[in-house]
Amino acid sequence: MNITKTAMITVCGRPNVGKSSLTNALVGEKIAIVSDKPQTTRNRIYGVVNRGDTQYVLLDTPGVHKAHNKLGKRMDKTASDSIADVDVSMMLFEPYGALNESEMVLVDMLRSSGGPAIAVINKTDLVKDPADLEARKAELKALGVFDDVYTVSVRDNDHCEELFDALSRYAVEGPHYFDDDAYTDMPEKELVAEVIREKALLFMRDEIPHGIAVVIDQMKERPNGIIDVDATIVCERDSHKGIIIGKGGSMLKRIGTAARMEIENLMDTKVNLKLWVKVRREWRDSDMYMKNYGYNPKEI
Questions:
Q1: Nearest CA to 195 among 152, 173, 227?
Q2: To the nearest 5 percent, what fractions of the chain are helix, strand and coil?
Q3: CB–CB of 62/92 below 8 Å?
Q4: Which of 21, 136, 244, 248 has its CA 20 to 30 A from that of 176?
Q5: Residue 34: CA atoms inside 13 Å, Cβ hemisphere, count?
């Protein structure tokens, strides 16, 4: 009888430190959207990797930040809850800069939880002097929270694979939580919605993307295999609606074209994507709208 093991791993850190990029790299599939803007990840996302007899379940969490609305509070709670009841927490840092308030809040959470944790310094491709990296490692070790400190560059795919050796030490005997061919727990509709939101984050100005959500109104497969997707981009202001649509519909077309190409790669078939834009004022402070858009207000 084969003995199976599972390691539940929380991937945490401040916004824009590379959590989703690292999760995608380890899973080998794109399960979490990536941008250079904070608040990109809103939900806890499970990535699944099977190596030999061990299943690694990665929980990619929202970055902890100062919350300004109910959605922000929910994101912070999702991140903090993910630290509890896992086999190990993996906290990401950058090689330079003082540790900020949100990072110290997470460090304190890890200390209070008493569970094992490792630190990972990402973006080593930006390191100017090896001594700088050693200084950062010493700083993190001195916090007294982490079993060890590892260094990676997700951008260069450098040393990422070695993290499995580190994480395997925390695996426990037991059945696998997911099928061996699974790589995420996200429903297909949610994956499609996240791809569309990523393209909006990519192409639009900074002040708009935080206030948008994407809803899949309909997703149907034709007999010939083509998938029709009707989706709505929800924003909070009339002025934002105009910017999302763009002059003559140019911005909406740009978002839709990029999203369609990625969705086709994701589903390995042709996709007919139609996008609409609606205004829902202050939706991030509405329990009803948050529930409709996939953010459960009961978790706040």
A1: 227
A2: 40, 25, 40
A3: no
A4: 21
A5: 14
